[in-house]
Amino acid sequence: MSKITKRSWAEPYKIKMVEPLRKTTRQYREDAIRKAGYNTFLLYSEDVYIDLLTDSGTSAMSDYQWAGMMMGDEAYSGSKNFYHLEENVQKYYGYKYLIPTHQGRGAEHLISRILIKQGDYVPGNMYFTTTRLHQELSGGQFVDIIIDEAHDPTSLLPFKGDIDLNKLENLIAKVGADKIPYVSVAATVNMAGGQPISMKNMRDVRALCSKHGIKVIMDATRAVENAYFIQCREDGYANKTTAEILREMCSYTDGCTMSGKKDLLVNIGGFLAINDEDIYEEARSLVVVYEGMHTYGGLAGRDMEAMARGIEEAVQDDHIQARVGQVEYLGAQLQEYGVPIVLPVGGHAIYLDAKRFYPHISQDNFPAQTLAAELYIDSGIRSMERGIVSAGRDVKTGKNYYPKLELVRLTIPRRVYTQAHMDVTAESVAEVYEARTRAKGLEMTFEPKYLRFFQARFSPIA
After folding, report:
1. Which pLDDT band holds residue 2 (cuts at 50, 70, 90)?
2. Which residues of 170-185 are buried (b: 16+ CB within 10 A; e: fewer)?
3. Of the candidates 411, 425, 455, 461, the residue with the CA atom closest to the CA atom of residue 440
4. Residue 18 domain-assigned?
5. Cis peptide before 5, with omega less than 30 degrees from 0?
6. pTM of this structure
7. Going edge to edge, which strands form the sheet with 407-411?
8. Helix (H), strand (E) counts: the chain
9. Known active-site residue 446
């Protein structure tokens, strides 16, 4: 009988090219984070050892994608790469019409401008920063209708991204269906810790919205990861491929916004995909104003080709299993060290629970921002705040939002780091956790008008 009780998994690729990483001293990092105003977004990337700031545009492309880059048709209009991208969106996502954009927020801008009127309400399963801002700039008000468990980092519910149908029905009864241009469905839910939405919930949301004539628009940025969680966690889907599950998810929506910089394994690019011809025609007109011709949308032909090929690779079961598996590996390491994280582990990142990490630091003193800075000082690992700074201010009152979740996101780029990098990360987080009582918090010294988490600056509390 074999003595091996559990077989290890390995990444379904081999490495052809490497990029050297730079290690620095603690003193150097203390100076670097001070110059950056204790905001990890403002660090120089060359001063970062392991970069877990985001998985947006930071993935490694395959030889198949790089080969496609050499086939870029850089014609101003009618690029053959656009038609390849359109073909794959129709094949794997099932939508009729495609508008390419430079990245996801370009698609968010278009759909918000087209569908939202002043005084409208846009319900969704927890806000996302750029999505909510585009909705507000178009005159709408975001309403959170996610289930309550999503705000509890210790809840083990497998689909914490689900929409609370009672909350949605109550909003419809309160404001009227004509004041709700669409329901914004995120798959997965970034701000909740990368939590997925179930297929059953998507079907139920579709049925309710159809009854009231309300559209459903999905943020499909990480929908492939969501499809994988459905395969693993939801009854009736274990024997279906990720590609089949993804196509069914999309069938319950009227369109999607996409940042190809996540699931689709490219460094730049996104799109708006839609089934309604009238919306498509308006989007096709607007994209020329803000992005470029409707057959390139601000992208080079080579970038569209890389994204078209990335769609094919993203839905491969061995790829997505390894991608989520690496995140789960880091989560298991941190749990062994006793570090408080959001559970269940999400698809693209580990979220440190800064409220439990630093219970002595009030939310007004930015515990998550503090934790991100302390982690960088310890090891040169760059992470991202996802708490009160990211939540921003109420546009009407000017007061801070106080989210229940105060998190630091350790975001894993796809096909970039090894398990050894995950070990180094876990050990650094554990070290910072051991020294947690010494952290004092921060105060904000500069706040930009929009999306303050990108450019705000801080200083330590004396």
Report:
1. low
2. ebbeebeeebbbbbbb
3. 461
4. no
5. no
6. 0.95
7. 349-353, 407-411, 384-386
8. 16, 14
9. no
Which residue in 28, 64, 76, 450 is the catalytic one?
76
Give a yes or no: residue 163 inside a domain: yes
Strands 457-460 and 407-411: unpaired
Asked if residue 350 lies in contact with residue 327, where contact means CB atoms within 8 angstroms, the answer is yes
Residues 86-140 have pLDDT tens digits of: 999 999 999 999 999 999 999 999 999 999 999 999 999 999 999 999 999 999 9
Residues 260 and 379 in one domain: no
Catalytic residue chosen out of the listed positions 54, 101, 129, 425: 129
Annotated active-site residue 26? The verdict is no
Number of domains in the chain: 2
Same domain for 350 and 219: no
Is residue 3 one of the residues assigned to a domain? no
Catalytic residue among 105, 222, 262, 409: 262
Question: Does any domain span residue 351?
Answer: yes
Q: Are residues 106 and 34 in the same domain?
A: no
Asked whether residue 189 falls in the same domain as residue 296, the answer is yes
Annotated catalytic residue 453: yes
Partnered with residue 184 across adjacent β-strands are 124, 217
Query: d(Cα 39, Cα 455) in Å, to the nearest integer?
Result: 7
CA 305 to chain centre: 22
Say yes or no: 73 and 89 in one domain.
Answer: yes
What's the mean pLDDT in 152-171? 98
Active-site residue, from 132, 386, 409, 414: 386
Same domain for 67 and 178:
yes
Choose, from 219, 254, 263, 303, the residue flagged as catalytic: 219
Q: Which residue range(s) make up the domain with 365? A: 26-55+319-460
Pairing of strands 255-259, 270-274: antiparallel
Using the structure block, give the residue that is written with the tokens 């996302």. Answer: 128
Confidence of residue 1 (pLDDT cuts 50, 70, 90): low
Which token pair is 329? 């590996």
Angle between the N-to-C axes of helices 242-251 and 199-212, in degrees from 0 to 180, rounded to the nearest 10:
20
Phi, psi (deg, nearest 5) at residue 350: -100, 135
Active site residue 76: yes
**Average pLDDT rounded to a whole number, residues 262-278:** 98
Phi–psi pair at 24, nearest 5 degrees? -125, 170
Together in a domain, 396 and 433: yes
Q: Rounded CA gap, 274 and 254, in Å? A: 6
Tell me: pLDDT of 345 over 90: yes
Dihedral over alpha carbons 11, 424, 153, 316 (to 10 degrees):
-10
* Percent of the chain residues past pLDDT 70, beyond the cut: 100
Say whether 229 is catalytic: no
Whether 222 and 357 map to the same domain: the answer is no
Catalytic residue among 38, 128, 366, 376: 128
Query: Active-site residue 82, yes or no?
Result: no
